Amino acid sequence: MIIDFHTHCYTPEHAQKALALIPKGSQFGPFYDGTLDGLKKSMQKNGVDASLTLHIANQPEYVQKVNDWAVYCNSQDGIYAFGSLHPKFKDYKSEIARLKKCGIKGLKFHPYFQYFDVDDKAMYPIYEAAASEGMAMLFHAGTDIRIIGDYCMPQRFARFCNDFKGAKIVGAHLGGMLAWDEAFDLLLGKDVYLDTSFAFRFLTENQRKRLLDCHDPRLILFGTDGPWVDSKDDLDILKRYISGDSADLILYKNAKGLLEI
């Protein structure tokens, strides 16, 4: 079984805008059209059994609409979704309760798109509310190629993880996009999930060995960041380095646990 723990799909009216962010001819896709149907077709083509889609509310007034889309995606066969909360959204406790009632198991935060520091104490009541309801919290960690800032660089992310020991925390892009050595120094061996999306393919051989030798395989999640990465390519690369029980954990068992399926 294969579960891709990091994908994106957009409403038909937003898919074209999202794909326009990547120049034509880029090596980073898109590898499907950004729609829910496009994701399903890509999964079928590449042998992926289930996918988690991640959604972001860039403004507080978009939170409920974005989450309505996440709930719809989560109702589809083979598709799971995380919701979104914006730092300035006031009624976050009620929204967390609504998402939980609808079967949503986690939240995606993107400090660069939402312009907040991951370790800002003003965010802690939101994290505490999510953690108290058993919600997983996934963060874009490391740099963002389009936005300058240190909103969720490894040192900040590690500080937050330390403050929320015991919560279900996922560091996307192996905990530190384009800052992997620093991320590994601070996060490997700690109780934090790391997803491989838009990251494992870019590591050196030594970095790949360090990750797999030093981090618990029960805390590594296969993810791609589709449509910006082709899932078959990422699977082919990862499978060269993992086998046996570790492979089962990374490719689907850890995801099943977090998604409670």
Write down the secondary-structure element order: EHHEHEEHEHHEHEHEHEHH
Radius of gyration: 17 Å
- In what range is the share of β-strand residues? 5-15%
How many domain regions? 1
Shape: globular
Summed up, the helix count is 11
- The order of strands across the largest sheet is 4-5-6-7-8-9
The overall pLDDT, averaged over residues, is 96
- Cα distance, first to last residue? 13 Å
Estimate the helix proportion, in percent.
40-55%
Q: What CATH first level would be assigned?
A: Alpha Beta
Largest β-sheet summary: 6 strands, parallel
CATH superfamily: Metal-dependent hydrolases
CATH topology (fold) name? TIM Barrel
Keywords:
single chain, six-stranded parallel sheet, 9 strands, three-stranded parallel sheet, 261 residues, alpha/beta, TIM Barrel
